[in-house]
Amino acid sequence: xxxxxxxxxxxxxxxxxxxxxxxxxxxxxxxxxxxxxxxxxxxxxxxxxxxxxxxxxxxxxxxxxxxxxxxxxxxxxxxxxxxxxxxxxxxxxxxxxxxxxxxxxxxxxxxxxxxxxxxxxxxxxxxxxxxxxxxxxxxxx
Amino acid sequence: xxxxxxxxxxxxxxxxxxxxxxxxxxxxxxxxxxxxxxxxxxxxxxxxxxxxxxxxxxxxxxxxxxxxxxxxxxxxxxxxxxxxxxxxxxxxxxxxxxxxxxxxxxxxxxxxxxxxxxxxxxxxxxxxxxxxxxxxxxxxxxxxxxxxxxxxxxxxxxxxxxxxxxxxxxxxxxxxxxxxxxxxxxxxxxxxxxxxxxxxxxxxxxxxxxxxxxxxxxxxxxxxxxxxxxxxxxxxxxxxxxxxxxxxxxxxxxxxxxxxxxxxxxxxxxxxxxxxxxxxxxxxxxxxxxxxxxxxxxxxxxxxxxxxxxxxxxxxxxxxxxxxxxxxxxxxxxxxxxxxxxxxxxxxxxxxxxxxxxxxxxxxxxxxxxxxx
Amino acid sequence: xxxxxxxxxxxxxxxxxxxxxxxxxxxxxxxxxxxxxxxxxxxxxxxxxxxxxxxxxxxxxxxxxxxxxxxxxxxxxxxxxxxxxxxxxxxxxxxxxxxxxxxxxxxxxxxxxxxxxxxxxxxxxxxxxxxxxxxxxxxxxxxxxxxxxxxxxxxxxxxxxxxxxxxxxxxxxxxxxxxxxxxxxxxxxxxxxxxxxxxxxxxxxxxxxxxxxxxxxxxxxxxxxxxxxxxxxxxxxxxxxxxxxxxxxxxxxxxxxxxxxxxxxxxxxxxxxxxxxxxxxxxxxxxxxxxxxxxxxxxxxxxxxxxxxxxxxxxxxxxxxxxxxxxxxxxxxxxxxxxxxxxxxxxxxxxxxxxxxxxxxxxxxxxxxxxxxxxxxxxxxxxxxxxxxxxxxxxxxxxxxxxxxx
Lengths: 141, 373, 406
Fold this sequence. Notes:
The complex is a heterotrimer of chains A (about 140), B (about 375) and C (about 400). Chain A is of the alpha/beta class and about 140 residues long. Chain A has a single domain, classed as Rossmann fold. Chain A is built from five helices and four strands, in the order βαβαβαβαα. A four-stranded parallel beta sheet of chain A has the order 2-1-3-4, sandwiched between helices. The mean pLDDT of chain A is about 95. The termini of chain B are far apart. In chain B, helix 2 (about 70-80) runs parallel beside helix 3. In chain B, strands 3-2-4-5-6-7-1-8 form an eight-stranded mixed beta sheet, with helices on one face. The model of chain B has no long low-confidence stretch (mean pLDDT about 90). By secondary structure, chain B is α/β, with parallel strands linked by helices. Chain B folds into two domains: about 5-235, no CATH class; about 235-370, no CATH class. With about 400 residues, chain C is α/β, with parallel strands linked by helices. Chain C has two domains: about 10-250, no CATH class; about 260-365, no CATH class. Chain C is globular, with a radius of gyration of 23 Å. Mean pLDDT of chain C is about 90; it is low at about 1-15. Strand 3 (about 45-50) of chain B pairs antiparallel with strand 9 (about 310-315) of chain C.
């Protein structure tokens, strides 16, 4: 299979995962250059329409990552994010869209830089196996 | 203990009489139900009636007509949007319309105060084009025959045939229709709440039946399984996958009529009508750098999936959307299928309980672990 | 209407003598010829992109595509059997936020549309909802379109029915507004940069320049403009006259059906207030329609009081208010395309009613929607002395009063 670098849009919460990603970079944990980071103040700020737009505009994968439940900087944003993720996946899945499998939610706290690297590795490999998303090309609508 | 009232007159007459005497006795100031708007060949619309004569034998009211020109849940929301009603009215609505209204009340788009909710075990409604082509009247005999058997006429909305929520849960009064033999000569009303009982207390012509049978008869139980099977078949018709999506919405013209008639879609300015979705020419020009061609206007599928993201948790499966689509897309089949999945995910039923929070407004500390990496 | 007013109306509308056109070989039919020509324009970079209806993958409808890849044109249909979205609305959505940044990919865009779609685009440009600077409007003689639901039921049969009717110049299967359309070509004055003349009696096809820009395009394509169009012009004029008579007849009959409150209510008795008509109308561009705004969302006491007054209130209310109000807002720009009627789920003849209102209202103000880009919208401008027949009764009454009081 042709090598391709997945184009993953990552919505990272400022207080936890973004900090972890920053820390991972400084500590020189190697990760594939697949994640395009969009810094959100909270994973709960991620509007489902952002995820949808990312996919429709050609993202091969979308990742939302935030603080662990109970540790959200704004108390409960991540708990809302979890429900929205579940709802979106259900919509994609029911309509038989591959996007269901290309969309993930993870919890990575600020002190878990190695975990961030693992999340990126794992998700990137998963997307590599799925191949590039054909949504942007095929969906002329 | 539920009380019931049995009348020795036909269902239609019973309901008309009930509404007429509610108005005449000033127990209610108005009744929201269906009525003729034009001449004999004219249309049918929901109306707020204040004149008891509308419910006489030659009156224009048609409370049990199997037709839904608008989802009455949305209409009750419109009526009570600014303030709760200060005088009582009665509203005759179908189970899905009732559920839509309760959803809207939860979403701060209306109030339940002062509304006597009357519903029925529902045999479905005909699609709008049956009303448009004038064949509604002539179908009524076969409709009622089917209802008495606990079945649905073949030509009612497909979402009706697949509906498992045909027993209204939050009505003050339920008219037993489905599976009731001899609706031409007798009719049973179930008084589900104190409110319902109080409103009809002392009305003439009703035999008190303090221990009626259960509303959910054996036949009703059988109907549940029939409808479930129908739903499976209907949902299987949805064209899945990316190709399915393209094929289904290829002829969508983004008129958004589906959204306009949807009772749940209440936003004053829909996101998809806002400036955010108005693309400058630069956008199209930019896209032409990456693609050989793209549709104008764009974002058709974005609107459909986006609307699903916004309202599928509250979709009551009424079927208004399919009926108004100028391109004959089976919108309600798709939306109620996705709605059912999303609702199952949260063990939620829209309109079941006015105290129950809509699923995306709340959360549990621990749940949905399968969603997290 | 006074004679002076009539003269003023007609003054702008002298039939222009049509010059010459350029012949286009059409052995395989009009669509194939036009598609071939469009491909050439893309190859020669005369146009950078083309906006044209293309068949959707499922084969059951058509969508406007903005394209620069000539291969996609293989599925294009410049004159499709249906009009799912009015082309004027499409042009507006494309250009409403401005003229773009002249990127080479799409600096010069050709839009292939029907005459009513072009006229709607012109109206929208005047309403600041479209910008036509980048656009080359290409119109085509139009046989009408089938009602959309007729076509979707059986697209193959629909396509055949359309082709046959178009060939025989038979408008009976078309939309009711198409059946009475008398603006199906480019005469008396061109509104587009190029017009495809298909109604020549000898079956030939010509492209007619309607503007200096259009003439330049033909020059760049090395297409000499030397074919006489007299035969075509005569044919079109004859057809237009016949259609005008038909239109007047249809409007006279229609007026009988709608005149008076009772009859108007009858026509709209099955209206479900879905507002499809407003949503598909190319002219209705308001982000939030007045008739859906808070202005008409009132406290329950208001509705109850109105219900008391007559014993009942249709709910949701304001059905006639919506239709007449919408007419007040847009009738002077209505191009009688019939998109509204196509979209109505209750088969109300709203397109026909609005075309009747449009003709009358536009005639009163000496205006024809979409005919001239340089003609101001009638409500935006005025003359010091005009429309005496509208004000005359009032002036007479007050003058009489003055005389009496003196």
